[in-house]
UniProtKB/TrEMBL annotation:
Transmembrane regions listed in the UniProt entry: 12-34, 180-200, 207-227, 239-262, 283-309, 315-343, 369-390, 528-547, 554-575, 590-611, 632-655, 661-681
Domain SSD: 206-337, 556-686
Pfam families: MMPL (PF03176)
Keyword terms, alphabetized: Cell membrane, Membrane, Transmembrane, Transmembrane helix
Residue stretches of biased makeup (Basic and acidic residues): 699-710
Entry membrane topology: Multi-pass membrane protein
Gene3D superfamilies per record: Multidrug efflux transporter AcrB transmembrane domain
Name recorded for this polypeptide: MMPL family transporter
Keyword set includes Metal-binding: no
Length: 719
């Protein structure tokens, strides 16, 4: 099959390239924009069965006038002394003056005695921010306008003020985000080009992945947007970045798989057409199986209860499918036309390296497979032990620079009030049947809530103006509202306690940011417990079909899962252990699933396929392991180094969760390529021997040819 595909692509190279260009133009011109299916509301990705979502739906109906977001103006004396009655009156005047200016997208400007901290250190003004969506750029402008007016209004008063809140934090860190992604983007391109230049010493080979993948990115974005429109899928704003990383990651890998094999065939004496036909024939099955495993792993995300993962899976599967077709058609067509010029001006491709590092490593694996398998396995297990200390961190603000106005104001607020002042836990009391709540029911519940676990302060109840059966009571927790302690408190104790405290004939629904994160935590744990075993089973099935074996897929999948645990454990050791962080970003396990389990499987498939190929050419298991590492090792090393480096540049960003993501995926890919695929898998395969291929006997010698047999002409190319 792949030989016929190779012959067609090489024989009709110009037609293939022309067809690709026409198809790309058609997709880009006719497809909708990706922004049309993008949603910024993370809560909307939770199923309705979760209590925080039900609370939000009730709030939307009963408090339709509620602001989209809130900005909190924190006022204090510049000399650090407690506020005086005159200062409090001045803050009230400030609120009225700001309200009179009618700053677009703002409303409310609430302050008063209840807005003064118990220790008189600060007084707050709560400002409602109104927009159609939480990510409307007009909200950022509203915060900027508020800040511009604060200075002149407080001049000569002895008071200073700052604006805190999520929108204010975004304003402060917008430049940080933009500069971080600019640095990461430039560093990624430079890294890919630089490393391929070092490997092949050719600017053409170095630019080929960048140019082709850029085109593929446009096509993929269009197809994903079209699929989203057709199947009513909403995706996160992060999708564009994730698509870029996935395409550059797997795209560069697949192109390197082909280029390394193409160079090997040229060295063996094939002409440029025959070399590409044989390369597609021998690597095509590997790339297809690897892409199939990644596609399956991504589609398993459809089983997730979190809508973000469910919509992300098909989008990434489309991206991998497009890259698969590209790798088997467009790349072979281009390279077959370029021929030896793809490695210009270097002539090193003509010479097989003598006493190379990969040859020495292969010899070591083949000579002592038991020692190599044990050493690499112990390393992975030792790192995996770090998972036992894993804690999720939901506090994004702590990962940003702490010298901004929003960060300083938030600290002032939390010192004066409860730790949860910026993100109250919202409790909705309702009869559920439309019967009006009595004042006694509302007041009794508010009073009882003050004694609930972890509650530092209860704000005055609010009655719904449109629905007399609903009231809202905001609770300020005594813990950081996005800390693990607060999330565990809401999930395990506070909710149940508040449910029990609801007066007879009423029920309480707990919402707000902490409750949302508590539900995301539950959903995330559930999803990983489903996704990982299902993906492992399906990847094992693909490996079984590729290798015609039941034994090898078992230890290959175990190796992948062990590598996942080792990666997470290494990240815990660094950030929670050495750096003393309260946890690692809660998104990390699913990110590692995407980029370590799914994409890291590519290297296993490449290596195991080469081991089988060497066994088929008559080599005994130990010798096949040695030769397999010698010839597939450089490909795995180069692909792993480039992909790890691509993620590693995220550590240049001054944002904690980007640094954690960069380190975790980079170390995961390094472990996948240089420990699992280079040592553990070939050593274990050599140790198990012929039994690794049971019951299909995929290692049986075929066609009676050794690996040093003369290459067949183009019309008689054999596997």
């Amino acid at each position: 099959m792949f030989e016929r595909l190779g012959r067609f692509v090489v024989g009709k190279a110009w037609w293939v390239i022309g067809g690709w260009l026409l198809a790309a133009i058609a997709v880009v011109v006719t497809s909708p924009s990706l922004s049309d299916i993008t949603s910024a509301d993370q809560e909307s990705f939770l199923p309705r069965s979760y209590e925080s979502v039900q609370a939000t739906e009730l709030a939307t109906k009963s408090f339709p006038q509620a602001a989209t977001a809130t900005a909190t103006i924190v006022v204090k004396r510049s000399d650090g002394k407690p506020l005086t009655p005159a200062d409090e009156a001045r803050v009230g005047q400030l609120a009225q003056a700001l309200k009179a200016r009618n700053i677009p997208q703002t409303s409310g400007y609430l302050t008063g005695p209840q807005a003064v901290a118990p220790d008189k250190s600060v007084q707050i003004i709560s400002v409602g921010l109104d927009a159609d969506t939480p990510d409307d750029p007009k909200l950022l402008d509203a915060v900027r306008d508020l800040r511009a007016d604060l200075g002149p209004d407080l001049a000569g008063s002895g008071l200073t003020a700052g604006v805190a809140g999520d929108v204010a934090s975004f304003v402060d860190n917008e430049d940080t985000f933009n500069s971080a992604f600019a640095v990461v983007g430039v560093a990624t391109i430079i890294l890919i080009i630089g490393l391929i230049l070092i490997i092949f010493r050719s600017p053409i080979a170095a630019l080929l992945p960048v140019v082709v993948i850029s085109v593929v990115m446009s096509v993929t974005t269009g197809l994903v947007a079209a699929a989203g429109k057709a199947f009513d899928l909403n995706v996160s704003q992060d999708l564009q970045t994730i698509l870029l990383i996935v395409l550059f990651g797997i795209g560069t890998d697949y192109i390197l798989f082909l280029l390394f094999r193409y160079r090997e065939r040229l060295r063996a004496g094939d002409d440029k057409r025959t070399a590409m036909i044989v390369s597609v024939q021998r690597v095509g099955e590997v790339i297809t199986s690897a892409a199939g495993a990644v596609i399956v792993a991504f589609l398993v995300l459809l089983l997730a209860s979190l809508g973000f993962f469910g919509s992300l899976g098909p989008a990434l599967a489309i991206a991998v499918a497009v890259m698969l077709v590209t790798s088997l058609t467009l790349i072979p067509a281009l390279v077959s036309l370029l021929g030896r010029w793809v490695f210009w001006p270097s002539k090193a491709w003509q010479r097989t390296p003598k006493a190379s590092l990969s040859r020495r490593l292969g010899a070591a694996v083949g000579r002592r497979p038991a020692v190599v398998a044990a050493a690499s396995g112990v390393l992975l297990v030792a790192l995996a032990a770090g998972v036992l200390g894993y804690k999720a961190d939901y506090d994004f603000s702590a990962g940003f620079p702490q010298d901004t106005e929003s960060a300083r104001s938030a600290k002032d607020l939390q010192r004066g009030f409860a730790a949860g002042a910026l993100a109250p836990t919202e409790v909705y009391l309702t009869t559920g049947n439309g019967t009006p709540l009595t004042d006694q029911q509302v007041n009794d519940f508010a009073a009882a809530s003050a004694n609930a676990p972890g509650v530092a302060r209860v704000q005055p109840p609010e009655r719904s103006a449109s629905d007399p059966s609903v009231a809202r009571i905001n609770l300020l927790l005594d813990e950081n509202p996005v800390s693990n302690e607060a999330i565990s408190l809401v999930r395990d104790d506070l909710r149940d306690d508040l449910h029990a405290k609801a007066p007879q004939g009423t029920k309480a629904l707990v919402g707000g940011p902490t409750a949302i994160f508590a539900d995301i935590n539950s959903a995330n744990n559930r999803d990983l417990s489903v996704i990982l075993p299902v993906a492992a089973g399906l990847i094992a099935l693909i490996l079984a079909l590729l290798l015609r074996s039941l034994v090898a897929p078992i230890y290959l999948v175990i190796a992948v899962l062990l590598n996942f645990a080792a990666t997470l454990g290494a990240t815990v050791y660094l950030f929670q252990g050495l750096e003393g962080k309260p946890g690692v970003t809660f998104q990390l396990p699913i990110i590692l699933y995407l980029f370590v389990v799914a994409i890291g499987t590519d290297y296993n498939i490449l290596m195991i396929a080469r081991l089988r190929e060497e066994a088929r050419e008559g080599h005994e298991p130990h010798q096949a392991a040695a030769i397999g590492v010698e010839h597939a090792g450089p490909t795995v090393a180069a692909a792993g180094l480039i992909l790890a480096g691509t993620f590693g540049v995220l550590m240049l960003a001054p944002i904690s969760f980007l640094q954690q993501m960069g380190f975790a995926v980079a170390i995961g890919i390094v472990l996948s390529a240089f420990v699992m695929s280079m040592f553990f898998v070939p050593a274990l395969t050599g140790l198990i021997g012929h039994k690794a291929w049971w019951p299909g006997h995929g290692d049986e010698r075929r066609n009676g040819g050794g690996r040093h047999a003369e290459p067949a002409p183009a019309s008689e190319a054999q596997v």
